[in-house]
Design goal:
The protein is mainly beta. It has a single domain, classed as Methylamine Dehydrogenase, Chain H (7 Propeller), CATH 2.130.10. The protein has three helices and 38 strands. The strands form eight sheets. Strands 6, 7, 8, 9, 10, 11, 12, 13 and 32 form a nine-stranded antiparallel β-sheet that branches. Strands 5-4-3-2-33 form a five-stranded mixed β-sheet, with no helix packed on it. The chain starts with a helix and ends with a strand. The N terminus is likely disordered.
Length: about 525
């Protein structure tokens, strides 16, 4: 054998050894949806080209997250988590109660602070607040709570507890005004802001201009203690003159303008994800769109909402399919950060899929799993991880469904069955999962910040209601920790009071209850 041939053979041998090792150490997911006794498909006409969300929350207090999945023209379904044992194969059963139709998506929150999570259900039609009665039973609270919902096409939602209020302020984002005879283009609907009066809601305030919102998030983006409302808008229907928006939740309501550092941005905005991925305590933002996805970083020295886009070399644009011969741009929907391999670095899942038969966009558009590297770059592992579905994906949730410390992924698809990806990775780092409780109002502490620390490593997490694409979650906040053996954590509660530090071993599920500046922790 020549030297050249021996060298080539050696290269092949090295590749054969390295590739299996990479596949064993990288994240691996198994789709458990085909093993379930049911299917759940998001379907319907034009009104269900968008939406298709999932709410992930524990409705029977067994700590295993349950699912409420939109169906569009099909009934929505409440799926009870019957996995039963930590680390067991994911198993769900549909609840017997009939589901609502024309559901776009849903978000869990505890409106009346009774300790039982409620659901805010977005619909093409009347929206509903479903009051949690316990043991995964619900009833409409629209009448009892004076929630006045008009017949709109509602596609976005966010909520927060404002100062001195017993109940949360609710913001509902609407898409195209279907009653406008000049539509659908340049016919974006207005939005509604519901503020409480004691333990009921007043008539909503109208929020204009609306630019066809598909996602909303209330966040303390600059860590000033004052949260604002970010709105991501779809330029497909506002066509021109619109932009992304940031609203001050003052009285009166007021949008940020250029004089306050706000920079106009016009995209096909479909989803929002917010997470501090740099460890400086300031969240980065991902906005999904057609073509380039936007990873935005705050200029924290400006004292204003002035963002810069991450460079292309960062690897987060996910602008075209990563396999096949598609040259057309991708369509991004739900985005969510989460550390799927527990290496201490947050990764990014993006649900992808054609609107329906849009010829200018990729038809075979696989979902992304972008694995963050130590230098801040992202690399695509969706194909090797087994989540690269080419269905028309919409909403999703990245959450530990079998309580084994590894994040799983549930995906809702248009005109196809949902997907239930169990994280079966053989190797994984350490982790910690925390769920917050406080007495009185806002029991699940929306607006709080969690700080986890070990040596020179810091992780920050904001508890928020909203974002994604028609998909919300409540429950444990997952922190991948890498190789660190122990951590400490503290909580800055929604009223600004910061707790004392609390030491904790790793690989624990902890329910943290507020007691003044002290924290009471309960292990599962």
């Amino acid at each position: 054998m020549s030297v050249k041939n021996r060298s080539f053979a050696l290269v092949l041998l090295l590749i054969s050894l390295v590739l299996p090792a990479m596949s064993q150490t990288g994240p691996v997911f198994v789709n458990r949806a085909p093993e379930q006794s049911f299917t759940q498909v998001y379907d319907g006409g034009w009104e269900h080209f968008v939406g298709g969300g999932v709410a992930v929350f524990d409705c029977n207090q067994d700590h295993f997250p349950d699912l409420y999945i939109a169906g569009g023209e099909n009934p929505a379904r409440l799926l009870l988590n019957r996995t039963g044992a930590v680390g067991a194969a994911l198993h769900f059963e549909p609840a017997a109660t009939p589901g609502l139709q024309q559901v776009i998506g849903a978000y869990p929150l505890d409106v009346d602070s009774d300790g039982k999570l409620d659901l805010f259900v977005l619909r093409a039609g009347t929206n509903y607040i479903l009051r949690g009665l316990g043991d995964c039973h619900f009833e409409s609270a629209n009448t009892a709570w004076h929630f006045d919902s008009a017949e709109r096409w509602s596609t976005a939602f966010a909520a927060t507890w404002e100062a001195d209020q017993q109940w949360p302020t609710l913001v509902v984002g609407n898409y195209v005004d279907r009653a406008n005879p000049q539509g659908p283009f340049r016919a974006c609907d207005s939005h509604a802001v519901y503020r409480p009066l004691g333990r009921r809601y007043t008539r909503p305030q109208t929020l204009t201009p609306g630019f066809c919102a598909l996602s909303m998030l209330i966040s303390d983006w600059g860590r000033t203690g004052i949260p604002d409302l970010r709105i991501s808008n779809d330029r497909h229907y506002y066509v021109r003159g619109g932009q992304e928006q940031l609203l001050r939740l003052d009285t009166p309501l007021r949008f940020y303008g250029p004089e306050e550092g706000w920079q106009p941005l016009s995209i096909w905005g479909m989803g929002i994800s917010s997470r501090d991925i740099s460890g400086d305590g300031i969240p980065e933002i991902v906005l999904t769109s057609m073509g380039d996805q936007k990873l935005l970083m705050l200029d924290s020295t400006a004292g204003q909402p002035r963002y810069r886009e991450a460079p292309y070399q960062r690897g987060a644009t996910a602008h075209r399919p990563y396999f096949g011969d598609e040259g057309r741009p991708s369509s991004g929907w739900h985005a969510e950060f989460g550390d799927v391999n527990n290496d201490g670095l947050d990764d990014l899942f993006i649900a992808k899929g054609n609107v329906d038969q849009m010829p200018d966009s990729a038809m075979h558009d696989p979902n992304n799993l972008l694995l963050q590297q130590a230098d801040g770059r992202f690399i695509e592992v969706g194909d090797t991880a087994g989540i690269g579905s080419i269905e028309r994906s919409r909403g999703a949730g990245v959450v530990d469904l079998n309580l084994d410390g590894k994040l799983d992924i549930v995906v809702v698809n248009r005109r196809a069955n949902f997907e239930l990806y169990e994280n079966s990775s053989a190797l994984s780092g350490h982790w910690l999962q925390l769920e917050l409780r406080q007495p009185g109002v806002n029991r699940y502490a929306a607006g709080a910040w969690i700080e986890v620390s070990s040596g020179d490593k810091h992780w920050f997490r904001e508890i928020s209601i909203g974002g994604g694409h028609a998909s919300g979650r409540a429950g444990f906040e997952h922190f991948g920790l890498g190789a660190v053996p122990t951590v400490r954590y503290r909580i800055t509660w929604p009223d600004g009071v910061t707790s004392a530090w609390q030491d904790s071993p790793v690989n624990q599920h902890l329910i943290i209850t507020r007691s003044g500046r002290e924290l009471h922790q309960k292990r599962l």
